[in-house]
Amino acid sequence: MAETVFAPWDDPNEKPLIRFQNVTKRFGEFVAIDDLTLDIFEKEFFALLGPSGCGKTTMMRMLAGFETVSEGSIELAGQDIAAVPPNKRAVNMMFQSYALFPHLSVYENIAFGLRRGNMPKHDLDARVTEMLKLTRLEKFARRKPHQISGGQRQRVALARSLAKAPKLLLLDEPLGALDAKLRQATQFELMDIQEKTGTTFVIVTHDQEEAMTVASRVAVMDEGRVMQVATPERIYEAPESVYVADFIGDVNIVSGQSTPMGEDRYHISWTEGQQPLVAASDRPFTDGQSCHLAVRPEKIAISAERPPNVDNAVQGTVLDIAYLGNLSTYYVELPGGQIIKSQTANTRRISRRSFTWEDTVWVSWTATAGVLLAQ
Amino acid sequence: MNRLSWFNVTSLTLGFAFLYLPMVILVLYSFNESKLVTVWAGFSTKWYGELLQNEAFLDAAWVTIKVAVLSSTFATVLGTMAAYVLVRGGRFLGRTLFSGMIYAPLVMPEVITGLSLLLLFIGIGLDRGVLTIVLAHTTFSMCYVSVVVSSRLMTFDRSLEEAALDLGCSSFDAFRLVTLPIIAPAVISGWLLAFTLSLDDLVIASFTAGPSATTLPIKIFSAVRLGVSPEINALSTIMIGIVTVGVISASLISKRNSLRQQRDEQAAARTA
Lengths: 375, 272
What we know:
Chain A has helices at 56-64, 106-116, 121-134, 150-162, 180-197, 208-214, 232-237, 242-247, and strands at residues 18-27, 30-40, 45-49, 71-76, 79-80, 91-94, 168-172, 200-205, 217-222, 225-230, 252-262, 265-269, 277-280, 290-295, 301-303, 312-323, 327-333, 339-345, 360-365, 371-373. Chain A is α+β, with helices and mostly antiparallel strands. Chain A folds into two domains: 8-243, P-loop containing nucleotide triphosphate hydrolases (Rossmann fold); 250-373, CATH 2.40.50.140. In chain A, the strands form four sheets. Chain A has a six-stranded mixed β-sheet, with helices on both faces. In chain A, strands 13-12-11-14-20 form a five-stranded antiparallel β-sheet. In chain A, strands 15-19-16-17-18 form a five-stranded antiparallel β-sheet, with no helix packed on it. The model of chain B has no long low-confidence stretch (mean pLDDT 88). Chain B starts with 5 loop residues before the first helix and ends with a helix. In chain B, α3 (55-88) crosses α10 and α6 (130-154) packs across α8 (171-200). Chain B has helices at residues 6-30, 46-53, 55-88, 95-107, 110-123, 130-154, 158-166, 171-200, 203-208, 216-225, 230-271. Chains A and B meet through β6, α2 and α4 of A and α7, α8 and α11 of B.
């Protein structure tokens, strides 16, 4: 079955909906956004991910029109939007605090934007009803915001920002105020609504799991710069820097010097008196170049005996065990003090667990399990 | 519930006696049959009847209410605008100076405010009357409104206004449709404060009032200088009654609203 994959960013003929071009934003001396260039395409669910203070919220506020650009330009559908005030942009925003109007009912909150556009009464009613249905709020139309629960308020905020059918919907930490279970359910609901309405979503979040779940592409940001933009799988499996590898999920970083062995294979000498590690890399490294090998804990096997025919195997002792229920993470100390995390699924009962503290074990992984990074 | 100790009972009695004894005496004597204030001669409501016949008092009362309504309304409009600019206007040149200046009349001695206004009105040749009192009261009560409204605006979630802009409002519409309805309680209490200040102001009114218009406090003050009449006691009792009813109903309404809010929130939490 030939299914076309949604990947407009790989198509050179595709025109981006939003184009950040060398955008810099300063607040006095402080540089919030540093010479940033980024394209976001139509119908994307784009996540801006980063620690607090990395500039992700500033980017969103520039898109909404609440902040001006210091240098560079932002284009929306081919037009520079620098001079367009927020109330004239085909962009709507869902606020972190939801910002529901407390003096208006749920119905009037959703109708608020439509009333500004002088929509005929009949159409307006139909549109609000459609939005109420989409967000399963029909029963609460007459209630005031303080008369509904947090999850319902979140849906009202979403319905209100979608009511005007914007070209672009901005979501500022939309699920931050919800508890873990409700958040998961709402993530799928968001994806569902995004698909149904075909709106381009840009979401700001500091929660990597949320970004990975909902987004078609993720931009990992740090200190006003985009570190990497890629699909969640690429971000996880092929990070381009130690920062990205470390920010997303758990990772083992082994630093050393590379020696090219041909056929994209490299030896990495990482500590005195140990066999060099073997890693495959598409990116070229020179002889003696310092490099970092990033390997995810779940790609590292742990065993009592040295496994045969494996690229990398190092002996160490179990330092600590983190039991998470479904998974266990073993912290294995290697000679030289390097600690390697190995994660295994707990398919057997805990009493049958093979290793315990202070056991001597082998950790092993293949040459292609990790990513070799220059920085 | 703890029982009150004899110490607490004594403090309460002393405190409330200090606050309310003068008023209680005033109210009692307003029902005195005798014309002499210090001699009790039996219960009567005749001074209330006399009061209603007294054209001068009724005129003064009418002027006072007119002045209070007009000046507190102007003061509310101006004070709210000032508060909005000072809290929301962002940084502009001289902002600190402006916010300091708007509060200056709070600490300015009334005599000075009154005198300076008098000089101004004479200077521009404005005849003293209702208009000058309204202007003077607007001037000094505006800063009180501004203080009340700006303290509300400081706790106001700015993203509500941004949401309104985002949904297509102009800045003015955002203020009219979102900000104003939400800060309305503060604006109303600012209005009430300005109204009360205007009602009982004597100093500034006596500088700016003219022969054509006298307010009630001026009238009472000048009448008392010729001797306290039971009519004035009756008038004061009526004013105390109005204020009491106003205060009690205001607190009942706010109590009921907060109870309703609490109940709604509990109901929302249950249905979640």
